[in-house]
# Entry
Amino acid sequence: MLVSLFSFLGCTKNTMNELHIKVPFVFSSSLDNKNVLTVGDQMLSEHVFAYHQNLSWKKGAETLFSRITPDYKSNTITISQEREIHDQTGKVFSLGELCQSIKTNFTGTLHAQYGDLVKEITCESKTIKISFTSIPNNWQSLFASPDFAITDSKLYTGPYYIQSSNNKSVHLKINANYPKDLRANSVSDVYIEAYGANDTTKLVQNLNPEKDHATFLYGHVLQKKDIDSLKGKQFNLQIYQNEWLVYVGFTKKVNMEDREKISSFLDSKRNDLKSYAELGVPAYSMAPADKSWGITESTYNSLKKKITDLKVKKKYSIATLDEWAKLPLFAKVLELLKANFEIEIKLFPRNELGKIYEEGADLFISPMGVSPDDPVGHLYFFTSFSDEYSQVLNAGHELQKVATIKDSVAFGNALKDLEIRAIKHKLLLPLFHYPSIVAESPRLQKDPSLSWDWGIQAWTYQIH
# Structure
């Protein structure tokens, strides 16, 4: 077995020319770090763009290309460039380009709308100063996120660059100009292949640690037998708890009374639904209940109205991706809604993901990634797609105000108030939280000084 492990792909011990990664994500036709719609886009952004700093809940913030220093007395953040930044061609990413990048990002991204907090951005020597009316308390997350990556979206400044891509696969080549001390290996080619979430069980059966080096798996698809199968093949499993929320969202086309009836009906089916995705825990807010701003079952139940008549006033439609509709949990929810409310089901291909939120139907069912480091981010994501979400959660730029609360208890309480508001207005019905699971070949081990706290970063793997 040792011979085969150290000789696949024509490699010798401690060398590897290729990494093969599988993910259930959608890739957009063009990559824009300011408009990261899918987790696939987030993953690609992490690979091809440089970052000011890394952020880990285990290790905290660590400087990569820039040292970030806040001064709360003057409400100023100073960005001191620590390394020269090059794109894949060797061209230097100048201070002027870096400054313009930051100015552009602070005009607003899909997950961060902080333009009104910025008073002035000045650039001189190797230093950039950002003057705020009040510093957002998630500033560390901002400068470690794709939204504020060091790029103009056209330059690849990270450990890899995109050689070729489509919505199903991406071929990355090593960026020889990326600092060697910021990578754990010198693998020249990374191949990322997207698989359909509905094919997960078959995929797990066929995974081979000698050629499938890292695979991202949705917790809301996996069964316990799949976990046992992966362990039996000697995969190392990285489990990131409560990173996904499966929920039903309502658009403004659904009146409040009917939202309450549909929510009440699905609430009554929670115990039955649990058996369709074994790794889940009941969700009562966007944030998990173990977070200080998450809603507990008792609080959730106190917000519900007693519903006796489940008859809705009109016929509705619900949207999701065609591959998600085949997942056991999603299929059961759709079956229940169709049988009890005559709700029409509308399915979209993965390359039309945005349509299920924007224009697809009256309701939608979807997973959503929930960041433990930046809880304001997913709230901004919602408000970007819906006027109603924006009116309920961000009237008067309320998310900006919450983001500047320094006291952790007050911050958690303010976020919880927003979560409660979302439930009261029936913006969504949270169903279950699920983990992310990454199955890694036994030859791979993440370098703890480089790795992040989630997912797959090809350049951080030590090869054994």
Summary: The radius of gyration is 23 Å.
